[in-house]
Design a protein that fits this description.
It is a single chain. The chain is α+β, with helices and mostly antiparallel strands. The chain has 6 domains: 83-107 and 288-370, Roll (Outer membrane lipoprotein wza fold like), CATH 3.10.560.10; 110-122 and 204-283, Outer membrane lipoprotein wza domain like (Outer membrane lipoprotein wza fold like, Roll); 127-199, wza like domain (wza like fold); 377-460, Outer membrane lipoprotein wza domain like (Outer membrane lipoprotein wza fold like); 470-573, no CATH class; 602-726, Outer membrane lipoprotein wza domain like (Outer membrane lipoprotein wza fold like, Roll), CATH 3.10.560. It is built from 14 helices and 33 strands. A hairpin with a 3-residue loop joins strand 15 and strand 16. Residues 33-73 are annotated as: Disordered. Residues 1-21 form the signal peptide. One of its GO terms (biological process) is monoatomic ion transport. Residues 292-333, 472-515, 613-661 form the Soluble ligand binding domain.
């Protein structure tokens, strides 16, 4: 026996129960807690009232308080899965996955949380059968020939003292008998009076909760407490304790067997007796358990009492819900505590068929499945108000009916519709298309208002390629920038006219025209190019790595792999712009030219202000921007940027033009023109006049700097194409 428990027992024996006020919700002195039980017993000294009587106390509804809790709160219920719950969850999941076996033991969550949701017990009216005992406060009011009030407290000897009458023994009397006794005794000394007797503060009683309780121990509760209220106050049964046979023992005899299922499932509280001092609430071990999961109203693990058949378990679970499928039931069962079996059945005519309504065994898990979803729908799309999926009755629902369900035809609907119907045959699915005249179908024409079948697809056509609005955007140096609606076939020159034409600051060569369809094409092209380059890089790298033998070679291959990865990361980070090269001119010259493109939804045009600079980037000493001069060549701009860097590839310099195109600079008198796919001779004195305002001179790096780049002879062309597509210039390192 631990020291704490010894101290607790000494307190109980030194101070008799009827002389101590237990007030655990407002404990002014340290509590004594048993090491074997979470129950705490708080002791409040007697008040210095006259006669040494215990001062009136309010009877708390809960007498268990842990040191970590706030006064007035029960210990919070800790949700833990029992071994049975864990087993059923795991074992049940090994069967059909259509039904979850994550179910809990029924009823135990009733005692969750804190504080109790019931009203305090001391506020319950006192009935005529209430038994008077030490600690009860009796209030007497007299009027008539005599007037007065008396507040009496039953002392530990079970007596009260009345003027003239003297000492009366009242312990053991019911409240009704007490009133009769007081009136009889006072009538011996007074006449012509009336009397009212009521009870004030009530005594507390001590009860014991033992067995498989959630929190076993000794509890001090209100004298009005019943078995149910005490169970709520003390945490109820643990998951190893029964819910079906909770016993109250008094003076060595069991006076009641209480089934909590009667209370939970039927609301039956007839056996909920009032507790007396020193009563013992005994909770035996839990009985046989069976789980039911799936499509019942209350899936859970239920405790079986006696022989329980399948139908009774379903009824305990609230019955089948609206989604339950009677055509299948699965039962998992433990056989001889050695192995687990599964057998199937159904719920059809179970009430009449005794074989189907079999008895359950300990550990059974019953699974109720969902009804099978059979789709009887048809789809309607196109020029209707609310296209979608609609239920149809084959051979009954017709074209006109479904169109009405879809909100009717839109004003731009065509007279033509098409039904796609797929039939199942032994040779495979066969698709049939049926043309329908909608106008005639809506008039009820039998040859067009045909009956639909399940899975039919009805498409109502639309005055072709109907769109309410198409919009494009024009920004920058136009007189009226903004978003414009366009009609089908409208061209760029028309848009510029509607926008008021160019302003005086417009830089036509730098016009930036983007299109969503071009962006998508560029994205695919860029991904393909990067994919090919990635395969080539790592394919050749793997071959070289397998041939490496020395540490120096392996280190070199490691550096090479890192360089390749960095280059590919830069390539993958580039995002297509969707830029389409257009060369704007005076509207009179633009009309009818190859650059007077037909506009599409989402097109965007930006015309910048006049640019008078040239950019130089790449393998130069300092990237920079310089004022454009017609008298300077690209070489002179490179000199202005500090000249070539150490690894500059001077034979592959290219220029990003302001209109978005790219061009390699001339290297001799005869050069290849990629735009016209031909060789051209450059006139004397003109070969270096390829630079215009707004252009960017790009000086790439030599591939010889990195050994593995020598294998890719078109690396400069790849980077130049990337610059045009994504509008970026990449440095290799």
């Amino acid at each position: 026996m631990t020291m704490k428990r010894l101290i607790a027992l000494l307190i109980l024996f030194v101070f008799p129960v009827n002389s101590i006020a237990f007030e655990l919700q407002t404990i002014p002195v340290p509590t004594v807690q048993s090491s074997a039980s979470p129950t705490t017993i708080g002791v409040q000294p007697p008040s210095p009232a006259a006669g040494g009587q215990t001062a009136p106390q309010q009877s708390p509804s809960s007498q268990t308080v842990s040191p970590q809790e706030q006064p007035g709160l029960k210990k919070p219920y800790e949700e833990k899965m029992s071994e049975v719950e864990q087993f059923i969850k795991i074992a049940g999941s090994k069967g059909s996955s259509a039904v979850s076996s994550d179910i809990k033991q029924f009823g135990y969550d009733l005692f969750d949380g804190s504080p109790s949701s019931f009203a305090p017990v001391e506020r319950v009216p006192v009935g005529p059968d209430y038994v008077i005992g030490p600690g009860d406060e009796v209030k007497i009011t007299l009027w008539g020939n005599i007037d007065g009030t008396m507040n009496l407290t039953v002392d530990r000897d079970g007596t009260v003292s009345l003027p003239k009458v003297g000492v009366l023994g009242v312990t053991g009397l019911t409240f009704k008998e007490l009133k009769e006794t007081l009136h009889k005794e006072l009538s011996k000394y007074y006449v012509g009076f009336q009397m009212n007797v009521s009870l004030g503060s009530l005594k507390t009683i001590r009860v014991y909760v033992v067995g498989n309780a959630n929190r076993p121990g000794a509890y001090t509760v209100s004298s009005l407490s019943t078995l149910v209220t005490a169970l709520f106050d003390t945490g109820g049964p643990s998951k190893t304790g029964t819910m079906r046979d909770i016993q109250v023992k008094r003076n060595g005899k069991t006076i009641v067997h209480f089934d909590l299922y009667d209370f939970l499932l039927k609301g039956d509280k007839t056996k909920d007796i009032r507790l007396m001092p020193e009563d013992v609430i005994f909770i035996p071990p839990v009985g046989h358990l069976a789980g039911i999961a799936g499509n019942v109203k209350n899936p859970a693990i239920y405790e079986l009492k006696g022989e329980i058949k399948l139908l009774e378990l379903i009824q305990m679970a609230g019955g089948l819900n609206s989604l339950a499928f009677k055509g299948r039931i699965q039962v998992q069962r433990n056989e001889s505590n050695q192995f687990r079996t599964i057998f199937e059945g159904d719920l059809i005519d179970m009430e009449e068929n005794a074989e189907k309504n079999f008895s359950l065994k300990d550990g059974d898990l019953v699974k109720i499945f969902s009804i099978i979803e059979t789709k009887n729908t048809a789809m309607i799309h196109g020029a209707v108000a609310t296209p979608g999926e609609f239920g149809v009755t084959p051979g009954v629902t017709r074209v006109k009916d479904v169109i009405s369900l879809a909100g009717g035809l839109l004003y731009y609907a065509s007279d033509k519709a098409e039904i796609t119907r797929v039939r199942v045959t032994q040779a495979g699915p066969q698709t049939e298309r049926i043309l329908v005249d909608i106008a005639k179908a809506m008039e009820g024409d039998a040859s067009n208002n045909i009956a639909l079948e399940v899975n039919d697809y009805l498409f109502v056509r639309s005055v072709p390629e109907w769109r309410l609005y198409r919009t494009v955007t024009v920004q920058g140096e136009v007189r009226y920038p903004g978003t414009y609606t366009i009609k089908k076939g409208e061209r760029l020159s028309s848009l510029l006219e509607r926008a008021g034409g160019y302003t005086g600051s417009a830089y036509l060569r730098g016009a930036f025209f983007t299109r969503e369809s071009v962006k998508e094409l560029q994205r695919k092209s860029l991904e393909e190019m990067i994919g090919r380059l990635e395969i080539e890089m790592y394919g050749s790298g793997a071959t070289a790595a397998s041939a490496a033998v020395s540490k120096e070679e392996l280190d070199a291959k490691k550096i090479e792999a890192e360089q390749k990865a960095r280059l590919l990361e830069k390539l993958k980070a580039a995002k297509p712009t969707g830029r389409l090269t257009v060369r704007l001119a005076h509207l009179r010259l633009l009309k009818g030219s190859e650059y007077d493109v037909e506009l599409e939804e989402g097109d965007s045009l930006y015309i910048p202000t006049t640019s008078n600079v040239v950019n130089v980037v790449g393998s130069v000493m300092t990237n920079g921007t310089f004022i454009y001069s017609d008298a300077l060549s690209y070489k002179e701009y490179i000199e202005m940027a500090g000249g070539y860097a150490r690894y500059a590839d001077t034979s592959n310099i290219y220029i990003l033009k302001a209109d978005g195109s790219a061009r390699k600079v001339s290297s001799g008198w005869v050069n290849w023109n990629p735009l016209k796919s031909r060789w051209e001779m450059t006139a004397f004195g003109e070969k270096e006049k390829e630079l215009e305002a707004g252009d960017t001179v790009v000086v790439p790096q030599k591939t010889e700097k990195v050994a593995w780049l020598r294998e890719f002879k078109d690396i400069t062309q790849i980077l130049m194409q990337l610059a045009v597509t994504a509008g970026v210039v990449l440095q290799l390192y």
